[in-house]
Amino acid sequence: MKRRWFLISIIAVFMLTSFVGENGVLASKLNELKKEQKQNEIKKNDLKSDIQKKESAIKALETKIDDFLKQILSLNKEIEQTNANMNRVIDSINKTNDEIDALKESIADLEKKIEERDVVLRERVRAMQIKGSHVSYIDVLLGANSFADFIDRFSAVTTLMDADRDIMRKQQQDIDQLETEKALVEKKLAELEESKAKLEKLKASLEAQKKEKSRLIDQLEAEQEKLSQEKKDLEEEYHDTIEVEAELEKAVIAEQKRIAELARKEEERRRKAAAAAAAAKKPGTLPNVSSGFWTRPANGRVSSHFGWRVHPIFKTKRQHRGTDIANSIGTPVVSAADGVVSYAGQMGGYGNVIMVTHSSNGSIFTTVYGHLSKINVSVGQVVDKGTHIGAIGNSGNSTGPHLHFEVHVGNWTASGPSAVNPLRYVSF
After folding, report:
1. I need a surface site. Which of 65, 80, 140, 324 has the fewest CB within 10 A?
2. What is the pTM of this model?
């Protein structure tokens, strides 16, 4: 913004002061404006390059953002899966606790039965110890009074022995079952501890994933904020450059109109001074000055005419916007008509170039003299037809020493219909 207003202020000063002062000072303002315009064009090109780089960076950032979003979506799925696993583990733990409670009740019942049988067995043993060797199953059998009594006694003894064996068998079975169920309880408890450990690990994993998700979201928001700010700065700078370009274009047009007006006012004076200026030239070194408004700009051979041709350097078909006059380096170049120098300096493929603005019967023309080896005039200088302004050279995009001469109806333009065939006005 500061640069834009600074440039606009300079342009305003140029425009306000363009109607006062000496001719040379006034015309030089056009040169300064064109220099500023060229600098702004370079600035705009640099900005376009920066825009392309920013666009590439933006695309890369958008790809990165998409990757972050995919990671977040994947993370959400993992969190959902972890929550589901956690719920299943909790359900399993609850079921295990219920089974443990049931096992504890079964163990308690077995322990109670074993304890009751222990009491019975202890009583039987105690009774047998009290009777000692006086009473035994054999004594009972031998004490029978008859065979029938023996059979009865044998049946009774067998029943008692079977009862004792059944009690001991059940006691052993219950003891074995107790051991089995105790082992089962221990196994269930171990599984419960393992489930608890897994649950704690899942919880830790879930917390870590949540933390990672938050970090990714923060990074994503920071990248988005940076992208938004870069876009904003880039757009502001681009709009500033466009505004400066428009202001410079207006100033250049105004300055060109001012120079054209100056050329019209000086037309009559130049006509009167033409004869005296031609007489002052060195004979034999400059081209003969023709009668009429126009004259040949240099001596030499016409090596290329106006029109379409294959460019000798770039090898592409292009329009040749002037007439080439081949001669040795240093051959004098003169103004083709009375006018005011509107540009003098280096310009891209033209190399060293001079532009002269002319006024003839209310019409404006601009002549161009390119590839010069020497420039003898400055911007704003008033020149007459035949005035020595420079010398043939080989500067710019040139394959040999020659003068590239153009005639434009109106002001010079880099493209468009302003350039016309010089043969319409000048005889070669």
Report:
1. 80
2. 0.39
